[in-house]
């Protein structure tokens, strides 16, 4: 049996997340009154909180993903539906999928 350590050893999740969030910011920066670095730090806090909710069984994996998008936009007063959140997540997902 072979085990692989995927927490940054073989795949750089943080880099792919950063580049995906950067893409999300660039596409939607007119909604946010913060710079790209502040946006990324806000994203990380929101992401960590909602991923914990997923691990605690409060949300499905898809729900926690949509909640992150909805919450980051809500900071700017923009309310997204689940469908809009799913569409808004695509830049992050595409970059993370390409990079690994």
UniProtKB/TrEMBL annotation:
Lineage top rank: taxon: Bacteria
Cross-referenced Gene3D superfamilies: HAD superfamily/HAD-like (3.40.50.1000), Putative phosphatase, domain 2 (1.10.150.240)
Protein name as catalogued: Haloacid dehalogenase-like hydrolase
Species name: Gottschalkia purinilytica (Clostridium purinilyticum)
């Amino acid at each position: 049996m072979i085990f692989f350590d995927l927490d940054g050893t073989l795949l750089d999740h943080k880099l792919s997340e950063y580049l995906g969030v950067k893409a999300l910011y660039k596409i939607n920066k007119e909604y946010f009154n913060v710079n790209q670095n502040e946006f990324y730090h806000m994203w990380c806090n929101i992401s960590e909180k909602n991923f914990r909710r997923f691990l605690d069984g409060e949300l499905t994996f898809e729900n926690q993903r949509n909640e992150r998008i909805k919450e980051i936009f809500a900071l700017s007063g923009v309310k997204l539906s689940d469908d809009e959140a799913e569409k808004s997540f695509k830049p992050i997902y595409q970059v993370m999928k390409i990079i690994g």
